[in-house]
Amino acid sequence: MSDALVTKRSRKQAKGRYGVIGKAVDELDERLGVAKGGRGFLDKIFPDHWSFMLGEIALYSFVILLATGVFLSFYYIPSSAIVTYHGSYLPLDGQSMTASFASTVNLSFAVRAGLLMRQMHHWAADIFIGSMVVHMARVFFTGAFRKPRELNWTVGVTLLTLAIVNGFLGYSLPDDLVSGTGIRIAYSIILSVPVVGTYLAFFIFGGNFPGTAVIPRFFILHVLIVPGIMLALVVAHMVLMVRQKHTQFPGEGKTESNVVGSPLFPVFLAKTTGFMLIVTGVTALLGAFAQINPIWQFGPYDAARISYAVQPDWYMGFLDGALRIFPSWSFHSFGHTIPFEVTIPAVIFPGLVFGLAYAWPAIERRVTKDNAMHNLLDRPSSRPKRTAAGAAVLAAMSMLFIASSTDVIANFFHVSLNTVLWSMRVLVLISPFVAYPIAYKIASEMNATRGAGRRKTVNVVTRTEEGEYVATPAPAYADDVAHDLAPTPVPDFIEVTPPEQPPSDGVRTIDR
Amino acid sequence: MSDQHERRTPVSLTGLREDDPHLQPAARNPRLVERVIALTFLLGLALVVGFGASYWVNATPWILGATLGGGLFFLGVGLVAWGKYLMARGPFVEERHTLASSEADREAFVAAIVERGGGVVKRRKVLGGLLGGGLGAFGIVALFPLLRSLGPLPKGTLFHTDWRAGSYAVDQTGRRIHVTDLAVGSIVTVFPEGTQNTDRGQAVDQTVLIRLSNENFTTQKGRESWGPMGYIAYSKLCTHLGCPVGLYEQQLQLLVCPCHQSMFNVNNGAIPEFGPAPRPLPQLPLYIDAAGYIRSQSDYNQPVGPGFWERS
Ligand code: HEM
Ligand code: FES
């Protein structure tokens, strides 16, 4: 203690050149060997293109879902037991309802920041799935799913599917009038599966609808099982991405065998952490100012009542739309019924859409016979057929989404429901055939036009002494130039060669 | 205009000098940017502290959200700007290395799997078969909890409701419906007495009771006696997906399902006139007892609600 020899300076020296961090790395490295791979990881290059942020939005909204979800699960009670509500929301005072509904009302009015957390959770779910869809579109239209990244595409499609399922499960948990109707519809859809439908429905719900098992079962699926699988898949998605490295758009200095951009540490880390804060901040602002799912206005679920203008969350819209516009083609024969009016739009159709998504990389490989490795992205315009196919699917899905509000449209435009129904049927069927040629044409035209898709520079027109006019293009915009700058290798952030060193004139001094 | 941004040519693969343009910040005026970022961080810090304070005093949700969201937002914007404008502007390059192993490595790996594994299995076919059989059987047995305990078997449950010969029709509060109770043209949701407060009663037995102006109304051939004194009753479960058919259009005599807008003609056996519902709503045969109460003659003559495989 009293050792006078221990000065600030000598203590610092004892710690070595890099102080505490250096020491900690030493200790870790002796046991785990983290330094070799770690340094490579810090130097990992991330392309600087805005479209790469879409996946980040999805990742961060997933993190927000985990965090706010844990908060909610402290207060939410997954039980169909009937209770009488006596809480701070007076209009419902004295009503009997399930414990899950009562606890969600309590969570909204009696728990500190509870309403904020609920609304953030719900908004994060909508943003999560939305950003996944847009991220998927980016990957699709740029051909990032091609060899060697087919596996990660498959992981991505699975994540989207599970996210939609989990969103539906979560939406059901409050047991309010709107979500209860959604569960009823889900039950009937399961029932519609030929041969095993009734068994499936009884096993999932623990009996006939509604029963008391469904809320606790949905709860454990929603908070543990599905998010657990998703977390594992998200990790797998990231590991594959790190191992295979990012794709990049073609540009000066960018080749199939390099990656150009910013290093993980510190540039990308700063940007991405900042972005995570922004996504969380925006979600909190939405949770604060944009009301979502005010279940106390809907009231508790009662199988014999229904609220009007029932609409599911947006990502279920295409299913609802398909159910609305599909004709009433029930099949009865041989003493059996196949409710095609349900089975086709709500079981077979989504199966086909997601099946197509899973199979796309294989389909494309078979058609193009392209089995090469691809690290450079396509511009969507340079693959008119793929772009047109994607546009066709998006068009049909958007029309189905619009079809989920046939009644609202009819009321709003004062036209008959029948007109709206038939228009939507026609639109859904023809929209892919309209979208395909239009997208194909635009893409091919852009492809054939030099400089399309880039910012135009002005032409400077000068008049020569002879009276002749000459147009010379002005130099490219400063940041366009920056975009095309030739890349250089990862710099040495730790040991920068000091500038005093003689330049590369052949003479090198060696420090010993 | 591009003079400010001197074009940076690629440098060699070895370390960069400290004054290399790639290591310089992208901002033209780093001092100014630094000050702006400092201001953003300050704002973010203040709001985050404000969030703590408003949480402590239990402020209204929008104040909580505004301080939390605003705080994180400003911290995030500052950090992104720091990374974008004040750190090394790059761009930098990293080489990819082929992920695939050498031909020899691959060969050795496959050989190990096929030869070692195959050797073992081929020499001990019986053992392999027994082990495979045991594990396979376990795989099937492991499904039993899913099949036997998750729920009861459907059996006949979907074919019947709780309406019986002589069930009193009661409303949601349990009051028996008397023939004088309903005004002409009005509608009420009824249940067989005793089930009005049960899940099953509400989900399966729910029935709409309508009083028509025509006292001798027959909805369809063969149902002459089903609607005494203009009282007719239909299952309230939509035959599409089982939503309650909650909306009665009195002028058009239509029952409308709000879920996907199926419309059922009350006057004509509740045949679907519009929408995706494939079948009429089943009709409940009624009678009026000596005391004037509305009761059912029997259960529905077919399963109510959406379609499923076992129904004919
Ligand atoms: C995969 C991501 C997830 C999605 C898409 C999702 C989506 C949703 C949605 C839409 C709701 C309805 C909210 C409302 O009432 O308006 C909800 C409720 C809920 N979620 Fe999640 N969630 C996810 C993950 C989680 C996790 C990981 C947990 C817990 C650890 C959780 C816990 C809860 C709880 C307890 C509720 C019911 C309380 C309430 O409704 O307010 N969620 N979820
Ligand atoms: S449930 Fe009634 S129309 Fe779909």
Set down the secondary structure blueprint.
The complex is a heterodimer of chains A (512) and B (312).
Chain A: H1 8-14, H2 19-32, H3 35-42, E1 45-46, H4 53-75, E2 82-84, E3 96-98, H5 99-109, H6 114-141, H7 150-172, H8 177-191, H9 197-205, H10 214-244, E4 258-263, H11 264-289, H12 295-298, H13 317-325, E5 331-333, E6 336-338, H14 340-368, H15 384-403, H16 406-413, H17 417-448, E7 459-463, E8 469-473, H18 478-484, E9 488-489
Helix pairs in contact in A: 4-6, 4-11, 5-6, 6-7, 6-11, 7-10, 7-14, 8-9, 13-14, 13-15, 15-17, 16-17
Chain B: H1 30-56, H2 61-86, E1 92-95, H3 103-123, H4 125-141, H5 144-149, E2 169-170, E3 187-192, H6 199-205, E4 207-211, E5 231-235, E6 247-249, E7 254-256, E8 263-265, E9 271-274, E10 283-284, E11 286-288, E12 294-296
Antiparallel strand pairs in B: 2-3, 3-4, 4-5, 5-10, 6-7, 7-8, 8-9, 11-12
Helix pairs in contact in B: 1-2
FE2/S2 (inorganic) cluster binds next to loops of chain B.
Global morphology of chain B: flat
CATH class of the largest domain in chain B: Mainly Beta
Q: Which percent bin holds the helix content of chain B?
A: 25-40%
CATH architecture of the largest domain in chain B: 3-layer Sandwich
Under CATH, the topology of the largest domain in chain B can be stated as Rieske Iron-sulfur Protein
Q: What's the CATH H-level superfamily name of the domain at 47-73 and 82-321 in chain A?
A: Cytochrome Bc1 Complex, Chain C
Content-based structural category of chain B: alpha+beta
Please state how the strands of the largest beta sheet of chain A are arranged side by side: 1-4
CATH homology group of the largest domain in chain B: Rieske [2Fe-2S] iron-sulphur domain
Order of helices and strands of chain B: HHEHHHEEHEEEEEEEEE
Largest interface: A-B, 128 and 102 residues
Distance between the termini of chain A: 37 Å
The major beta sheet of chain A can be summarized as: 2 strands, antiparallel
Strand order in the largest sheet of chain B: 2-3-4-5-10
User: What value does the average pLDDT of chain B take?
Assistant: 88
Oligomeric state, counting identical vs distinct chains: heterodimer
Give the C-alpha Rg of chain A: 29 Å
The name of the CATH architecture of the domain at 47-73 and 82-321 in chain A is Up-down Bundle
CA-atom Rg of chain B in angstroms: 38 Å
Count of DSSP H/I helices of chain B: 6
